[in-house]
Amino acid sequence: MYKKGDFHLHTTASDGRLSPGELVDMASKEGMDIIAVTDHDTVSGIDEALEAGKKAKLKIIPGIELSTLYQGNSVHVLGYFEEIHNISSEFKNFLEKMSEYRKKRAEKIVDNLYKFFNIKLDYEKIIQDAHNIVTRPHIAQAIIDAGYNYTFKYIFTNFIGDSCPAFVPNKKLSTQEGIELLKSLNALVVLAHPVLIKNVNVEELLHLPFDGIEAIYSMNTSKDTDRFIKYAEKYNKIITAGSDFHGLPRKNRDDPEHSHSIGEVYLDEEKINIFLNKLKDLSKK
Predict the structure, then answer these.
(1) Contact 235, 209 (CB under 8 A)
(2) For the whole model, what pTM was predicted?
(3) Where is each Polymerase/histidinol phosphatase N-terminal domain found (predicted)?
(4) Residues 179-207: tens digit of each pLDDT
(5) Residues of CATH 3.20.20.140 domain(s) within the chain?
């Protein structure tokens, strides 16, 4: 039924550049027939995406990319819901608290950038430009927009990446807690972009109760993809595919998280059916 799916996409509800409606329209034009909207730590763009999906005759999977920590290292967890109604008000309240923490975190990062690197930014403008959810890519973009001659890659490697001087960790939600939280809502839970995980053994993570692994990802080499597919087989996980599309300008092409296209990688019909069947089974629990 569905032949081409991208299960990792971002909108202006977090750090994407397209509104949920614009994202759906672009996905349709790119030949997708099923997508998941997976904004960082928010589901606020889902309703708009679902409405746009009806008009475009494009299947929308409500999703989220949840920020967690595993032994002090950043690990992102993708959660997928069969129905928007599966997302409880308690969970939305929890996400709202995470959003407020992100704002405080961003303020600390801005202070650290000035303290350690003499980089002066307008915090209020960053918050305004970020809309609901402020993330490190927003801050990196603000550095570039302020006229500092750095690339996204350099900023993350030297200033605001994990363990860098200006870095401030996100709200302390462990990976195990994040998985349990999503599973309490009957979500299908997937390890996001394993190729980007640093200082953690991916196989160790797969001993946690993930349902799947994002084995097909836009930053992978073919060897990476083969390795992660083998992990999926070894640990009995389903496979998902995601471009991690944000819609940021091509001038920041060196930043690996923001130079992808919708459908640059995708899940085929067979694997989509496995994904949907698993999602349906979980929602019955």
Answers:
(1) no
(2) 0.86
(3) 5-70
(4) 999 999 999 999 999 999 988 999 999 99
(5) 5-84+173-283
